[in-house]
């Protein structure tokens, strides 16, 4: 299925224009040597002028990051193992929800359910609109409810939707290879609910979480790994989806539902809540987690501007 000519260029141009509207962050300004402007931005974000301690933490973290010469080598160290695994698994699971398959091949998918050509195209436009609008829910609630709640809630909703579609197609797909009008409408609604669940959970947060878990000294390497893994699995699923659809038929939805189940359990067990945690203190978050503290070596960490050694009980 070939992309529309110019579609990629138009999307890139749109991204470039939106990029002009993005403000600089305090960290990026400090890394550029513009600490005073970074202070002003930080004061605006916090709503107070009492940001000296936080600003100093950012400056010290930036100095440490700039002293690192080999971020890709550092990210392989044991102390960065939790973040590295998240950089690999989060984008992998994001693609294994099946969202790209539904969006890429929506017309083919709906036609295989018995929809007409025009109806298939309209349905694919509808799913795209639902995805865009549902992302606003995540923007409005992510700092109130937290990352874990949205990821787990979205995962549960996606599992239910995938299973419902699989059951309907398995039981109600007639000999004429068409669904009745009533069940066709139900399938479209449920798929839209699936897309909405992805839009307010794994869609944006699949990028947000990896971007905020790395310390500054390995952040560039971590983000590179996240993007590379995402693009690899996007390519792999796009190339294999039609073959999987022909082989599994309605079971393709159960295939993706099983992966969503795995990734929801993964988040529940292994992902700590990152809401409101500054990048400079992220290492402390992983050290407090019941599992990752056994993986990370005991090292001296800084909290509140004072260095203090933390040696978690490795046998607990």
UniProtKB/TrEMBL annotation:
Protein name (record): (wild Malaysian banana) hypothetical protein
PANTHER family: OS09G0416200 PROTEIN, SOLUTE CARRIER FAMILY 2, FACILITATED GLUCOSE TRANSPORTER
Phylogenetic lineage: Eukaryota, Viridiplantae, Streptophyta, Embryophyta, Tracheophyta
Similarity field: Belongs to the major facilitator superfamily. Sugar transporter (TC 2.A.1.1) family.
Subcellular location: Membrane
Major facilitator superfamily (MFS) profile domain mapped to chain residues: 1-275
Keyword terms: Membrane, Sugar transport, Symport, Transmembrane, Transmembrane helix, Transport
InterPro entries reported in the protein's UniProt record: MFS_dom (IPR020846), MFS_sugar_transport-like (IPR005828), MFS_trans_sf (IPR036259), STP/PLT_plant (IPR045262), Sugar/inositol_transpt (IPR003663), Sugar_transporter_CS (IPR005829)
């Amino acid at each position: 299925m070939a992309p529309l000519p110019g579609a990629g260029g138009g999307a890139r141009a749109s991204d470039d224009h939106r990029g002009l509207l993005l403000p600089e962050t305090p960290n990026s300004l400090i890394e550029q040597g513009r600490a005073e402007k970074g202070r002003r931005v930080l004061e605006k974000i916090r709503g107070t002028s009492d940001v000296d301690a936080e600003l100093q933490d950012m400056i010290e973290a930036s100095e440490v990051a700039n002293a690192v010469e080999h971020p890709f080598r550092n990210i392989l160290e044991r102390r960065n193992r939790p973040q590295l695994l998240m950089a690999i698994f989060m984008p992998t699971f994001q693609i294994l929800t099946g969202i790209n398959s539904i969006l890429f091949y929506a017309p083919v998918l709906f036609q295989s359910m018995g929809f007409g050509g025009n109806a298939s195209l309209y349905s694919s436009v509808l799913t795209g609109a639902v995805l865009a609008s549902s992302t606003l829910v995540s923007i409005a609630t992510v700092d109130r409810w937290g990352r874990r709640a949205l990821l787990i809630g979205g995962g549960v909703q996606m599992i239910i939707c995938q299973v419902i579609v699989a059951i309907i197609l398995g039981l109600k797909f007639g000999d004429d290879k068409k669904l009745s009008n009533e069940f066709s409408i139900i399938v479209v609604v449920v798929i839209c609910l699936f897309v909405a669940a992805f839009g307010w959970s794994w869609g944006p947060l699949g990028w947000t979480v990896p971007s905020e878990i790395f310390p500054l000294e390995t952040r560039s390497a971590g983000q590179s790994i996240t993007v590379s893994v995402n693009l690899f699995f996007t390519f792999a699923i796009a190339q294999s989806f039609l073959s999987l659809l022909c082989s599994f038929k309605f079971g393709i939805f159960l295939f993706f539902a099983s992966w969503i189940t795995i990734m929801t359990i993964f988040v529940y067990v292994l992902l700590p809540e990152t809401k409101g945690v500054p990048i400079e203190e992220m290492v402390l978050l992983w050290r407090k987690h019941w599992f990752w503290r056994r993986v990370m070596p005991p090292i001296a960490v800084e909290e509140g501007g004072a260095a203090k050694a933390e040696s978690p009980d490795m046998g607990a």
